[in-house]
Amino acid sequence: MALNAARSSAQEAEATPPPNLPPPTVVTPPLPPMETVEADISTRSLEVTTGFTGHEIVVFGAIDNSQAPKDDAGSYYDVVVVVEGTPFPIVARRKSEVAGVWMNTWSITFNSVPSYYAIASSKPIEEIAGPAVLERHAIGFRHIKMMPAGNSGVGLKDSQLAAFRSAVIRLKHRQDLYVLEPEGVDFVGRSLFRSTIALPANIPVGPLVARTYLFRDGEVVSAHIARVTLHRAGIERLVHNFAFVYPASYGLIAVIIAVLSGLLASMLFRRKTA
User: Crossing angle, helix 247-273 and helix 235-245, to 10 degrees?
Assistant: First the structure.
């Protein structure tokens, strides 16, 4: 009897389902904080006078939450600094030989071309990211946004349009207005970096935008924007304002000064030859 009761209790225990237990808790280690780049410029405002011969600005910054090995950020991250001037329309002309005379036979107007464009990077940008990433962020001479204005360029092939575009970039580069420094960013320690950008004497007056990109494994991790203002000062500012406010008077005065200068030079030349 006792044996039968024990067997019956065991069978009932086996038939009874176990209680619902909560699933085991999986502890996931917290993800490291995302890196961000912070940057600034040594000069936020720059005066352009008649004696302006150019200037150098320093873009410096730090990588917050850097995950790079100690004192070796250059092998873990890449930094690209792009300084871009105010966009202006520009006309590109092509000369051809017609009946033995070289003359302008075709022209195209680009709606918006940066007046100044400088790139400084920790290494050549082609080694930092692929063309798609560089195109997305407009980094590099090949990826500058230059679109024909209105009906300008209608009927041109892509190769012809690319030739005009390359000509504009080549001319700007020759004028030191488009600058490329493939090793122009230096890392200091684990997270600090700096870059020196040269502004030429012929840089157009206006605001500049400095964009700093932090790359890791060919992708942009973070970006920062700072601004520099170039403004006229002194006599140049007075002359510039007078020329735009009173253009007719400015033109008349310029003609009078040119005539008087010519007469004075002629008189001096006669005295020396007499």
Answer: 120
